[in-house]
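Dear Dr. H.,

I hope your travels went smoothly. While you were away I took the liberty of generating a structure for the chain from your last submission, since the lab meeting agenda had it listed for discussion. I wanted you to have the full record in hand beforehand rather than looking at slides cold. The sequence, exactly as received, is reproduced here:
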Amino acid sequence: MKHVNLSPELEQKKKEIMKQFREDESAADAREESTMASPSESGASDESSKSSKPDAEVIRQRVIEALRTIYDPEIPVNIYDLGLIYRVEIKDGFAEVDMTLTSPGCPVAQTFPGMVEGAVKLVPGISDAVVDLVWEPPWTQTLISEAARLELGLI
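The corresponding predicted structure, in token form, is as follows:
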């Protein structure tokens, strides 16, 4: 796997993203705790208080934030904003991610999906994950987010 040294600006941005991810995670955990009052305290029935776990959309957003901390080894943009992530689905703590690479001949084709899977499994609320490498539709620059295009000088 080719290792790319990030510029000091990108290293700082990566640190800021990780800090924001941790802050968002702490805030989400605090919100979770504040909404998990016992039925006797809140007056809620047992039925409405059964689920103390964050819902799938909260966990999905956590997974996306984790994906935004992983950078393409050849292009200094995270894989989510680069448009390499096609699908993120969460069901009962299981994450399914479809991703692609910028080209089938990418030198990290054999190792990158495993690295992505490992990062997804570290997200709170994820018990297991699978990352599938897909080639359809083929990746094009049109999949890059507007913010990443601006960062790369493409617009």
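Two observations you may find useful: The domain at 8-152 is CATH 3.30.300.130 (GMP Synthetase; Chain A, domain 3). The longest strand covers residues 85-91.

With kind regards,
E. W.
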